[in-house]
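> @MW can you paste both from yesterday?
MW: sure, first one:
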Amino acid sequence: MSPVTNQKWQNWAGNQQATPRRVATPRTAGEVAAAVRSAAGDGLTVRMTGTGHSFTGAAVAEGVLLRPTALTAVRSVDTASGLVTVEAGLPLHALNRVLDEHGLALANMGDIQEQTVAGALQTATHGTGRDAAGLVSQVAALELVLADGTIVTCSREERPDLFDAARAGLGALGIVTAITWQTVPAFVLRAQEEPMKWDEVLARVDEFDAANEHFEFYWFPHTEGCLTKRNNRVEGPTQPLSTFRHWLDDRFLSNTVFEAVNKVTHLAPATTPFVNGISAKALGARSYSDTSYKVFTSPRTVRFKEQEYAIPREELVPALRELRSLFVKRDWRISFPIEVRLLPREDAWLSMAHGRQSAFIAVHVYHRDPHDDYFRGVEELLTTLGGRPHWGKLHTRDAEYLEKAYPRFGDFLALRDRLDPDRRFANPYTRQVFGE
């Protein structure tokens, strides 16, 4: 592992950049530990990046930047217990293929699979689910390098406090070098996608939540149009979309055409309501079944900026009605649909769904469009409801707010004080959300 200097880094959306003092690509947990000790000797902070899919500065490295691209081994697969241990830099899409080859799967996922497993886990990436929760609830053990350079493992039985804190730890407690996943037998999902009017979706959201294993919907601002998505397990064989239909819907229309639409609305924001109206009316119903991860995830090539908040589940419908009224009050022109997902309560200390059933509201803008006024207005609304910001998505919350939002936040900070008193793993974002 030979460090290099003056390498500029930026995230996927292009809104976060860094030029660390040096960059290294460790090949083992031992080399990560050596890099941490070396950074300490030079008085530098150290962070490991993933693929840069966080919109916040979670991965920004000021001192030493560690790239995980050589930490991608599959260490063990136990098909009897479902326990699978992989290294931190393995991308989710590669993990999904490995699991599928062994007749296994993750019980729930978010909608993209480009992130590294550690990067997705450390920011509490989640999907939507009635019973199956996010990634932090599918972990059996972690291997971490602590600030003193020691390599430790933790689980519900071994160092349980560290396990509960570090599953969504933002790399602030240690650098995750390997994850043991608790997987489930491979399964087929049937996807049912159906356009529906705003009033009907809000009137039936409790019904859809109760009746489906995975339910979510999108609302197209300035219109009455929503797209509902219901995913449920079925027996095989699979009935996937044809190659042409997949290309047409998920690549050409959802990415190529959507990119062109956003270029138009970027240049002429006043056209946004008209364009969204066309998009909402063009939505069609479709149904298909496929291997679970192929249904959970979709390709995303249009670059955007995103903010997402988790609120108590019972606040969802009133929050959405108030959010819609803000479009009139603030005269926003937003081309991206608003995404709504649901999740059961989780026990990881900094999971956005910690201790409560939660609804997630995600807002997006095209990466070239201004976001400050829109995101600030949505944030003001959702924080009045005890909203918790997604750790990997844009927000302005600080430690003072977050301590009130998370029951175990003080315990997390106390553990961090013991494990990293010199703040070896700090960066501007951790200083914002955890304080100095």
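MW: second:
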Amino acid sequence: MTTPQDENALLPATRRALLHRIAVAQSEGRTPSLTAAVARGGEIVWTGARTSVDGHAPDGDVQYRIGSITKTFVAVLVMRLRDEGRLSLQDPLEKHLPGTSAGEATIAQLLAHTAGLAAESPAPWWERTPGSLRPELADVLGDNPGLHPGGRRFHYSNPGYTLLGALVEELRQEPWDQVLRREVLEPLGLHRTGPDPVAPSAGGWAVHPWADVLLPEQVEDLGRMAPAGQLWSTTTDLARFAVFLAHGDDRVLSAASLAEMRTPAAPPEPGDLASGYGYGLGMQIQYWGERQVVGHSGSVPGYLANLSLSVADDVAAVVLVNSTSGVPISTLGADLVRIVAEAEPRIPEPWRPLPDVDPETLALTGPWYWGTQAFVLRLTPDGGVSLDPLAANGPRRSRFRAAGDGAWTGLEGYYAGETLRAVRRSDGTVSHLDLGSFVFTRIPYDPAAPVPGGVDEGGWRGLKQEG
């Protein structure tokens, strides 16, 4: 019998495939160094590195700047405030952080980059200049921060996350990075993550596009813009953070709130829709084939970073690079996830019977018909039910969470938020299921059920041929 640790250990062929992939990326991307890690089943199962310096490859303790992955950390802080009841995602920013020129934007819009704000702060380029040039939020936003109507389109905005960092500071009454350390980093054991580098750390470089020569990149303190991309971290810390993003930790944020963050919240642009790209609440969502990969990428002068997570496969990958460009960082992260997921598919948990079952709910399982379309209702291990079309690739499948009093609430798809209820006759027997006014019956167009529009008294018939 294998132990869980044995099940998580990667096979030699898989480890070599991962090493080969990062070696190609470092060589073709011409980056001074590249370090990576893969987590599976809640633990780090592989690390690898490539470098241009012989005998000096970085390990999982070396810090790199992670750019916009910082945004996911900030989003976790905001969701904690939501879960504590300190704010609603539908609140306008003005309610909690008055006096900005973006006060009409809601918290959700800022998290999802749909507030219509500009992508960058006014010149000069904030990533290559001291944050002291923008001491106030007004300096970050500029005179005309709104480019689009709020809520209408996805438009990535770094100033938007500056506002979220300021929101955290306003409600916690202390700097956002101190809040982050106390509420997220320390509980999760991310001791090598923070706003400033702590040795050992990798220096950032620019690589000439047409010659194999280097130019050191200056590291700036981003000041007010720090919540958009200031953090430094390691592959070990980010791999642990990826495990948290997949499974949750009640000391920090619940699995349900993290699932909400991973759910698309922004209307995609046509090009993004075609490429399978979306955005949730502080998390990027991409489809590589049929595999959904969530997480975030980051880039600041001298550094590239990526965190990629497939929840379905329970595989996460982290890649850190110390060059301004050259490595297709999102593709690389997704490839590391794919290599593990395809070479060593996730071993499912053993099937186990439910510990208990409500007889009345059990009696509802089996086939139901919406008109002539066949569906099947099943119990789910979490105490809810699912309603799935019997036809392959049929529409409107959904899971439902028990809402009490014999009702369930839809969790996804067409029926998200809708109520499913068993309607009973005066004698207690079930007449039909009601789902958002749709009537589901045990036989197609059951004449004994209140089918909208009624059922023809002649019943089902064939088509007589004349002649």
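> thanks! Confidence is low (pLDDT under 50) at residues 1-5.
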